[in-house]
Structure formats: structure tokens, C-alpha cells
Amino acid sequence: MGSLKKRRKAKINKHKRRKKRRMHRHKKRTWQT
Fold this sequence. Notes:
Elements: H1 2-32
Organism: Limisphaera ngatamarikiensis
Protein name: AURKAIP1/COX24 domain-containing protein
Region (Disordered): 1-33
């Protein structure tokens, strides 16, 4: 059960990182235009 909880945390972290990357991409795009 403990490892499962850890896995869940990692999944959330991955999702958060993806969101951040997307935000940066959007920022770059707006800067270019």
C-alpha cells in the first residue's frame, strides 16, 4: 500500500511538470508574436 501511495505522488508530479512546460511554451509563443 505504501508504494502505491508513492506512485500516486509521482504521477501527480509528472502532471504538474507537464502543465508547467505547456505554460512556458505558451509564454514563448506570445513573446514571439
